[in-house]
Amino acid sequence: MASKLAIQGGTKVRTKPYPKWPMAGKEEEDALIRVLRSGTWGCTQGSEVGKFEAAFAKYQDAKHGIAVVNGTVSLRLALMASGIQAGDEVIVPPYTFLATASSVVEANGTPVFVDIHPDTYNLDPDKIEAAITPRTRAIIPVHVAGLAADMDRILAIARRRNLTVIEDCAHAHGATYKGRKVGAIGDMGSFSFQSSKNLTSGEGGIILSDNDTVAAMCRSLHNCGRVEGGTWYGHRNPGGNYRMTEFQGALLSCQLVRLEEQAVTRDANGLYLDKKLAEIPGLQPMARGRFGETRHAYHLYMFRYDPDTFGGATREAFCKAVSAEGVPCCGGYPVPLYRQPLFAEKHFGPFTGYRSTRPEMDYANVSCPVCEQACKAACWITQSVLLGSRADMDDIVAAVAKVYENRAELASVR
Ligand SMILES: Cc1ncc(COP(=O)(O)O)c(C=O)c1O
Description:
The protein is an alpha/beta fold. It has helices at 26-38, 48-59, 71-81, 99-106, 151-161, 212-221, 246-277, 315-324, 341-344, 354-357, 369-377, 390-405, 407-410, and strands spanning 64-68, 89-92, 110-113, 136-139, 164-168, 176-177, 180-181, 188-192, 205-209, 283-285, 300-305, 378-382. It has a domain at 26-255: 3-Layer(aba) Sandwich (Aspartate Aminotransferase, domain 2). The strands form three sheets. The protein has a seven-stranded mixed β-sheet, with helices on both faces. A hairpin with a 2-residue loop joins strand 6 and strand 7. Helix 3 (71-81) packs across helix 6 and helix 8 crosses helix 12 (390-405). The two termini are 22 Å apart. Pyridoxal-5'-phosphate (PLP) binds next to helix 3 and helix 4.
């Protein structure tokens, strides 16, 4: 009989903590003090944000980078730069963070939810065409958990239907699709540098693009509508002050130096976990490599849990038991986005064009069965855990295997 579960008073598989996040050292300290002492804290006078924008765009294989205050604003500005008009529809997946769809509402558009693929939880290209109407203007594929969406197929549909593609790369710093980094594979890409992200300055975001025209519009929108070569009090476009500070720029440049090595470690550990966890009955890692994704950024290590194989124990009981063994694990997005009150009850205020163009749009009737299932089956392990050693990964496998062996006891876990 396997040893008693830690959640029931047994000995933990592991007591050592996993790597802490964020990580910072002398480089970050020096950079922050340098900016502090320079007295130039804003990016309109300084060069730290500009340096970071150029370095990150280059790292992600993009021509332009416009750093902003967060990854929600970057989505909204990218939508605005795409020329979206009141009531235009934007196709989004429902298995994602709020911002992917709320940014559409903020940009005065109407989000249209399209289901995800059961093996990757990324937007399913087979389901996109059926959702396109004469009002559709854009698609926002999310590279969910850090695994690139099926970009060739999404772009083929978008080019045929004249739609803009904005990649939501909030989870995907360093991820590759067919060997190319994500972000400017579509028309624009949006990243977040919020605290949990694989590259962070506490808050922050960036828009990437290879397109000179939309990049110039994003730059204008994030800087109070000013235009290149214009004056301080010359405002041409409906923008605001969404600029990043020099402190963030300097910090992110230091973090960027660490990113590539971290990305390689996460990717290798994720592949290792895929192999090991697939050997445990009732657990199914996500598919990798079937749809053009090459390097996985593993903002999240995600796998599917089958309660039937675990004697009917809930996913929540499973995650609690694994966490109690010393391996932090959680269930992720609890419901598809369209079930959030914002959408289900259309709490859009006066801000959206859906009233005039799609008054019949009723999110309470939307059903994306694969996403519904994903919200019940997915288990997440966060990115910093994947920065551990091979022995640290073996502890994950041991914790999960122990919970499986004790599955009969799990039913009583609340
Ligand atoms: C998929 C996705 N898109 C967008 C965002 C928004 O980023 P931010 O929190 O920086 O506004 C997040 C943040 O968690 C995210 O996970």
